[in-house]
Each structure stands twice: as structure tokens, then as C-alpha cells.
Design a protein that fits this description.
The chain has 112 residues and is of the alpha+beta class. The protein is built from two helices and five strands. The protein has a five-stranded antiparallel beta sheet with strand order 1-2-3-5-4, with helices on one face. The chain is globular. Bound molecules: adenosine monophosphate and zinc ion (ZN). The site of zinc ion has 6 residues, from α1.
Amino acid sequence: MDCIFCRIARGEVKSNILYQDDRAAAFPDINPKAPVHILIIPRKHIDCVADLQDSEEQLMGHLVAIANKLARDNGVAASGFRLVINCGPEGGQLVPHLHLHLLGGRQLGKLG
Ligand code: AMP
Ligand code: ZN
């Protein structure tokens, strides 16, 4: 699968992997929008959160648990942070491989 995030997860494209296990990986966003901006992805290619199967609910919970760990490790758990999942064109999704954005380290604006 010629998907940039699949290729990062497989180690074919160099990235600073901050966390990985058999189901997930996390790495810094190449164009950070905040002092902490980390992407958390499943190893399995899933286009978008809308494509999650019932059997993948646990996987989604696992990704959120990794985001919490990375928030703690990067010093933003206490100050606060935001998790964002964009889906589809009007959701602003540019890379069609499900990912969570972990954003923190500055005051984030209101949505909209
Ligand atoms: P989204 O708009 O939710 O699909 O977000 C995609 C994000 O992936 C953007 O914030 C990009 O800056 C980021 N991105 C794209 N290519 C790479 C890459 N090779 N390594 C790290 N982040 C990337
Ligand atoms: Zn992929």
C-alpha cells in the first residue's frame, strides 16, 4: 500500500518514531501547529474514522491511551491538550490513513 503513514509505520520512510507497538505508532507532525504536535496512527491502514469496524473499537481506545501517555511524556497532560481526528474533505483530512493529532503546549483557540 503506497500510503505515507503506512510507509512511516513500516520504517520505509524515516521519521522520529516516538512510540510504537504491534498495533500503533506515533511520530511528530512534519508541519507542527503547536509546540507539541504528534500523530498517533494504527498500523492497520484504515482510511478514516468513519471506516472503523465494530471490532476496531478497542484499537481506537488503544490510540487514545497512547495519546494520553504521550501527553504525559511531553509535559502537557496537566496544562491541557487537544485530540483531533479529521475525516473526509470537509473535515480537513489530507492524509487518508486514520490518525489522531495530539496538540498542546500553547493556548489553543476555539474550534470553528
Ligand atoms: P490531516 O489534515 O488530519 O489529514 O493531517 C495530516 C497531517 O499529516 C498534517 O498535519 C501534515 O502536516 C502531516 N504530515 C504529512 N506528511 C507527513 C509526514 N511525512 N510526516 C509527518 N507528518 C506528516
Ligand atoms: Zn496507510
